[in-house]
Amino acid sequence: MAELLSVKNLETRFRTREGVVHAVNGVSFKLNEGETLGIVGESGCGKTVSVLSILRLIPMPPGEIISGSVDFQGKDLLKLSPEELRHVRGAQIGFVFQDPMTSFNPVLTIGRQLMEPLEIHLGMNKQQAWDRAVELLNMVQIPNAADRLKDYPHQFSGGMRQRAMIAMALSCSPQVLIADEPTTALDVTIQAQIIELVKSLRDELGMAIIWITHDLGVVAGLAERVNVMYAGYVVEESKVKDIYQSPEHPYTLGLLRSLPRLDMEEKKRLISIEGVPPVLFKIPKFCPFVSRCTYRMEKCLQENPPLLPVGKDHKAACWVNTRTGEVRQ
User: Mind giving me the DSSP string for 190-225?
Assistant: First the structure.
């Protein structure tokens, strides 16, 4: 598969009253055509800031993209002018935000908000945009689409709003869809419907997807590759099946141990990860997971490990082999 998007050494910081927070620290990843990449990690690990930085959607100030490059179709998105970038957002890279209630304008109808990107990016007139908006709502399985376009966001349920948000993100047939925890606020049955909808649309339209979540169970059924993030770093990357069969970073291992499993003994307790993530006012010279890690050794306190190859298409940022307990060579 051809490479579609390449992010290299992305660094993003936020200036606060307490100090400078190093939210994203040298994140790199690639996305191929038609591929689904999962980005997982607990709240505050830098998942959302990473993808918002790609399209320069973080508030600046207090945010600031310090370094890095985002290559998309031969252009570095971090160097485009605001006008050039406006034609990438929505048209070539669609974005599904985390909270559909606050992502829609509450005083505009769903139809008006769906039609706007069609008129701006594709040059459609009002009738063409209306017809396309009806088609989009039908595509995401919202019944009585023509009537629902006249409704306001508060007249849609949570699941329907999320479907409408997906329809808006797909309106201009983007090559990449970024979905930022789109099922977090929904109940389990609606989550399953949204995931199945996205999978079917991906197969139908052939687009690539970056799916951000804290739920490894969702990633298992949706993505081909996964990046695990912690404290602003990618600490493990591999094909999805390898993450579940052979996790190589203690943090990934901890995430998997905290998940309920169908084959788990009935009385066996889930194992939580002790402690809390660090607030990075300084870039650590040691492993950021060291205070919570049961595998730590002296080297972990002295040097922050880079992503090291641990298998075919599999990398982990850890000095210790979690299976043997020995230092990686």
Answer: HHHHHHHHHHHHHHHH--EEEEEES-HHHHHHH-SE
